[in-house]
Design goal:
Keywords: Cytochrome c-type biogenesis, Heme, Iron, Membrane, Metal-binding, Signal, Transmembrane, Transmembrane helix. The chain is mainly alpha-helical. Helix content is 69%, strand content 0%. The longest helix has 27 residues.
């Protein structure tokens, strides 16, 4: 019985240790609002699809702490975003700026599709359809094809 109680005590204490809540102290409601907006706008570099407010990754915890520290240093929202971009790259924003690299990522697939279509059209022009069909037929089948084509022209 003592072992069962000990087991329940360990599970209960371990569970409460995992569910630690960050206690943050803000100077004003506006600062708290800005903090929440920034943590929703910045992406976790480790989780990739989570913002830093929802992520439990260590890097997200550090980023939240840095956001709070920069807010308490009276940095503007844009200055904090610029700091995070300088440190972690454009990936930390959900709306990265248009650069030469992002333009290439969007245009390259389209160019490859058009190039493929161009190659197919060019090959089709070089070899007429009759040549494709006639090259696969023997002499008897070619004669029969010629007769059918002549009948069609007469009609």
């Amino acid at each position: 019985m003592k072992r069962i109680l000990l087991l329940f005590a360990v599970i209960f204490l371990a569970n409460s240790a995992i569910a630690a809540i960050e206690a943050l102290h803000f100077r004003s409601p506006a600062e708290e609002q800005t903090y929440h907006e920034l943590t929703q706008e910045l992406r976790c570099p480790q989780c990739q699809n989570n913002n830093i407010a929802d992520s439990n990754a260590l890097v997200a915890t550090d980023m939240r702490a840095k956001v709070l520290e920069l807010l308490q240093q009276n940095k503007s929202k844009q200055e904090i975003i610029d700091y995070m971009v300088a440190r972690y790259g454009n990936f930390v924003t959900y709306d990265p700026p248009v650069t030469a690299g992002t333009i290439i990522l969007w245009i390259a697939p389209l160019l490859l599709v058009f190039l493929g279509i161009g190659i197919l059209v060019r090959r089709r022009k070089n070899l007429p359809m009759e040549q494709h069909i006639e090259s696969s037929l023997d002499a008897e089948q070619q004669a029969r094809l010629q007769q059918l084509l002549e009948k069609e022209k007469e009609q």
